[in-house]
Amino acid sequence: xxxxxxxxxxxxxxxxxxxxxxxxxxxxxxGVDTVGALRAHLAARGEAWQAMASGRNLRAAVNxxxxxLEAAIAAGDEVAFFPPVTGG
Amino acid sequence: MSAPSEVSVQEADFDVGAEIAGLGEGRRxxxxxxxxxxxxRDINDGSGVSAMTLEHYPGMTERALEDIVAxxxxxxxxxxxxxxxxxxxxxxxxxxxxxxxxxxxxxDAFAACEFIMDYLKTRAPFWKREETPQGARWVDAREADDxxxxxxxxxxxxxxxxxxxxxxxxxxxxxxR
Lengths: 88, 177
Hints:
The complex is a heterodimer. Chain A has helices at about 15-20, 35-45, and strands at about 5-10, 25-30, 60, 65, 80. By secondary structure, chain A is an alpha+beta fold. In chain A, a hairpin with a 2-residue loop joins strand 3 (about 60) and strand 4 (about 65). The longest helix of chain A has 9 residues, at about 35-45. Chain A is globular. In chain A, about 25% of the residues are buried. In chain B, strands 1-6-8-2 form a four-stranded mixed sheet, with helices on both faces. Helices cover about 40% and strands about 30% of the residues of chain B. Classes of the chains: A alpha+beta, B alpha+beta. The interface between A and B is medium-sized, with 17 and 29 residues.
């Protein structure tokens, strides 16, 4: 069994600015297998990453579809975090 | 010849007249074309806006718009659809978004057009960053947009009848004239 799985994580808009990063390749420790667990894992990095701690103004997508905190993550997935959308 | 694409996410401006004309062109079954154009305003939340930059999520944005169009096609009788959304830096009076719907009757065209805009506002990954005299700021999502989209929720089965009902009653009113 794999100890870690690799995923691609993307950040957009105000979150991208707050984190100073638009994305990264991440090897996730065992147990980090949902959007919610990944969010908690990232928020635990501290400082700017605390911006991800509150789910209120955070949205997520897995493989380019909107996803809730309970959504499963598998190796090779593209997971994105961003604020509520404001197009149109 | 392959059909022209229904959804475009692009930096370039678009020709509203040509897009509207294209929806009805050569279609003898089209009786109605409804359209919406969104423009950059020079004021928002009490501040002057000199420009805005639209960020998007390449790939997901197109997919989200295609999903919304497919949803509209399930709810109403739609003969043609065109959705264009721009990204990049835009200034007041610039066009941001175009939605055009061709249908046999106006009821479906109006409803599908409004539905696509309401869902686009809350589901398509675009973010606006405004330039104001106080500096640049990210636009906050508006609750009014959420409630506008919520009007269509759970309506997939039930309100299809309701919408048809409205259209039928309008047709009846016309026939009586």
